[in-house]
Every structure is written in C-alpha cells, then in structure tokens.
Design goal:
Length: about 475
C-alpha cells in the first residue's frame, strides 16, 4: 500500500451570544418553548424586512481580529437559496463574495511543534430552524426558534494533515471564542458545529485529491472519528484502482460510518445574489480599529507570559491557557500572590485537575475558590503545614467552607518548626543510629533519607521536614 497523506479543511459554525437575533429583535436564547421566540421577520413572512444587528457585526469583527484576519470595510450580504422545511424563507442571508473577515491564521502546539492553520474567511449568516422527529408520529414538526440566530462561519485553509490536528484546531477556535466572549461554545446545545472536508493524496504529491464533505458534526471527537473514517474509505477506493467522487456524506457518529447524502453541490446551485433588503454599507475604519484594541490577551500570549513571568514550563503554561476557565482561575491566583504562581499551577494541573477529570467538570465549578486555595498555599509556603498535610486540608475544603487555617488547627496539622525540639529529636535519632553517621561521612549520602524518616516518625509526623533535613545536614558535616 502507498503512503497517503490526509488533507483536511474545516468550516466551523459558531452561534454568537448576542441578546437578540441577527435581523429582528427576537430573543436569542437556547431552550425556549418551541416556536415562541420568533416573529414575522425570522419566520420569513411576506413583506417583513430584516434589520442587521450591529452587535453581530461587532462580534464577527472581534473574531477576525483575534485570528489575525483583515477586515472588509464594505459590508455586503447575499442570499443563499435552498429549500428545506426548517427554512421557511427558502433562502438564508449569508455573505458570498465579500466575507467580513479574510486572510488570517491561528497557531497551536501539537507534539512539541507549532502548527499554523490559515483562515480563509469568516462571514456572518443566520441559522435555520430545527426539525423535530418524534417517535410514533408519521411526520416531522418544525421549531423556528433558531431561525435568525446569528452565526459566524470560520473557514480554514486545507492546512490540516491529520484528524488529531483537526481536533486541536477546533479546540483552539473554541478557546479563542471563549476568550473574546462572543459564543457560549456549548457543544450540547449545538452552539459550535463543523463541516469537515477530507481528501487524501500520495505523500509528497503537491496536488489535492478529490474531497468529500461531511456536514453538521457537533462534537470534536465526532469530527476526529469522521475524518479517520472518511480518509480510510477514500484510501480503500484508491487502492482498489477506483476514483473518489466529490460528494456530501452524512456522518453517523453512533454507528461510526458515513453514508452518501448527495453528489456535492457547487456554489452556483445556491444561486447567490446580493440581499436586496439590506443594501451594502461601509464600516468605519476607526470603529474596526477600536475593536482591535479591545481584544483581550489571547491563549498564545498568555502562554508566553506565564513562561516569562512565573517560570512555568511551556507545557504547563499551555495546559492552563488553552482552557479559558483554567486561565481565569490561575490569573485570579496570581493576582492574590504572584510569587506562589508556580505552586498554584502545580496544584491546578495536579490534584485539582485529577479531581475535576474524575467528574468531567471544568475548574469554574471547583468548590475551592482561588482566594481559599492561595490561603492554603501560603500556609505551606510559610512552613505552617507540610505539602502532604496541604493535600489533606484541600480534600476537607472541598466539602467544608471553613478557612484553611481553621481546618489545620482543628485537624492538628500544624507543623512543628520549633528548632530546639527538632534538634533534640535529631540528636536522639543519631544517637540510636551511630553507624549511619559513619556511613554518611564515608560517602553513602542516601542514608539521609532514612534518618529524616526516623525523625519524622519520632515527631509523630508533625516535624517540619525541611528543618529536620537542615539540622541533620549540619550535624553530619
Ligand atoms: Zn424574529
């Protein structure tokens, strides 16, 4: 079998979290009673006229800036014509030849290497309604609440070379959307969906193979599986001497297979034409520039800052910044006590991550707020408690709102840092193990660990190990 390379391009649809819809004043929120959040405009009644929501343009421009895109100052919208029962107007207002944002890129780290993926374009458009298929009834119902919900479509260049890269790219887009606050990114509510374009070619070939598209995949893991399946399907066709034909296929994530939906439609099939109800207009350059200045610190910049300011490893810094919730939590910790930033990172990526992973939760639901975590870490830093005692205190704090110091006192976990007392213990342990002193001086320095352990035991686990270590070293010199 030849060695094949996978080529993937993605179209991500993200719902924007504006208060109202894109062309009317209906509420833009998920979960309302069916057909209660719609009006003559979004349901496409004859004569109803759309008015573009300024916030939608603002949010899309923000995403353009966050992905290094250029912004067109001419805002032009187009009708994309197609018939489907969830689209009463029989057209979708979108953007065709002049997308709002174009020619950008995003970068992410994968397996220690920086991957750059070009962003072809980002345009604004409206969502369609939703068909409801109920068990036992021989027809479908339509919920039009989602008609006119604002979307941005982010189209990537075919720069992705594996399903894993595609998944990382999707995570990166999601993180950026969260950072700039324009989408809730709730996968279970369908607020991010993607269309996947896959082709394969012999490795080393400069030409692209024929691509197939799978639409409306609503989980990142599903997208990854769909890409692997489709690539394998195409390779098998080529290996058998066949030809891949351009198609739209439907990915069935439950069965793990895709099936032919239709031979691929081309742009001309949608008979795009300029939207007559919203003539093109110009955006002010000053407004576009101001939005750029307001872009907050993005994940890659955060990673760099964490490495520079707090001496985190690049891996740890990346693990924190690529989760919006985690970065918010960590930033709050560093504001409280910047010199304990590294300790906070270790806890966040260690014990706390383990606790959250077991529950499938993000850190915004973690019961211990940054202020309380930092109060605990300060106790360790001052030598009031040991690191292992801190683990115990944290596990109590998960269900107990008391201050860490109160828990430490109640549980009797205060570390004994009384130098005189500890020196006494050290003397007693050395007196009981005279051979060890000779061994240590003879070069077997690993007996130190044993002696520290004996002292800890003699102090009933309360001794300050750092102090004991230091006292032992002085005596063994
Ligand atoms: Zn409406």
């Amino acid at each position: 079998m030849k060695d094949y390379e996978i080529v993937v391009g993605l179209e991500v649809h993200a719902e924007l979290n504006t208060k109202t819809k894109i062309y009317c004043s209906c509420k833009n929120s998920f979960g309302g009673e069916v057909n209660t959040q719609c009006c003559p405009v979004c349901t496409g009644m004859p004569g109803a006229l759309p008015v573009l929501n300024r916030k939608v343009v603002e949010y899309a421009v923000r995403m353009g800036h966050a992905t290094g895109c250029k912004i067109h100052t001419l805002l032009k919208q187009d009708r994309k014509n197609y018939y489907y029962p969830d689209l009463p107007k029989a057209y979708q207002i979108s953007q065709f030849d002049i997308p709002l944002c174009y020619d950008g890129a995003v970068e992410f780290m994968l397996n220690g290497e920086t991957k750059r993926v070009g962003i072809t374009r980002i345009h604004i458009e409206e969502d369609a309604g939703k068909l409801l298929h109920q068990e036992g009834i021989p027809y479908s119902l339509v919920d039009l609440n989602r008609c006119g919900v604002p979307l941005i479509e982010i189209v990537s260049e075919p720069d992705l070379r594996s399903s894993q890269e595609a998944r990382e790219y999707l995570e990166t887009i999601r993180t950026i959307l969260m950072y700039i606050g324009i989408s809730d990114c709730k996968m279970q509510e369908g607020s991010i969906r993607c269309d996947v374009n896959v082709s394969v070619r012999p490795r080393g070939s400069a030409e692209f193979g024929t691509r197939c598209e799978m639409k409306n995949i609503n989980t990142f893991s599903g997208a990854q599986r769909a890409i692997d399946y489709e690539a394998a399907r195409q390779i098998e066709i080529l290996e058998q001497g066949g030809v891949v034909t351009q198609e739209t296929r439907r990915w069935d994530d439950e069965k793990g297979v895709n099936v032919l939906l239709r031979s691929k439609e081309d742009a001309q099939d949608y008979r795009y034409f300029p939207e007559p109800d919203i003539p093109p207009f110009s955006l002010e350059q000053a407004w576009i520039d101001r939005l750029k200045e307001e872009i907050p610190e993005l994940p890659n910049e955060k990673t760099r800052r964490y490495v520079l300011d707090y001496h985190l490893s690049e891996t740890d810094a990346g693990l924190i910044s690529r989760s919006y919730a985690r970065a918010v939590y960590f930033d709050a910790c560093t504001v409280i006590d910047p010199k304990l930033a590294k300790a906070a990172a270790n806890w966040i990526l260690g014990d706390i991550a383990k606790y959250l992973n077991e529950r499938g939760e993000e850190i915004d639901l973690f019961p211990v707020a940054p202020t309380r975590l930092m109060a605990l870490l300060q106790l360790v830093d001052r030598g009031t408690i040991s690191g292992s005692a801190a683990k115990k205190v944290l596990s109590i704090m998960l269900e107990d709102a008391s201050e860490p110091m109160a828990i430490v006192e109640r549980e009797g976990l205060v570390q004994n840092s009384n130098e005189e007392e500890m020196a006494g213990i050290v003397e007693a342990v050395l007196a009981a193990n005279p051979g060890m002193i000779e061994e240590y001086r003879g070069g077997r320095t690993n007996v130190l660990g044993f002696l520290v352990g004996q002292c800890m035991k003699a102090s009933k686990g309360k001794g300050n190990p750092k102090l004991i270590n230091q006292l032992l070293l002085e005596r063994l010199k």
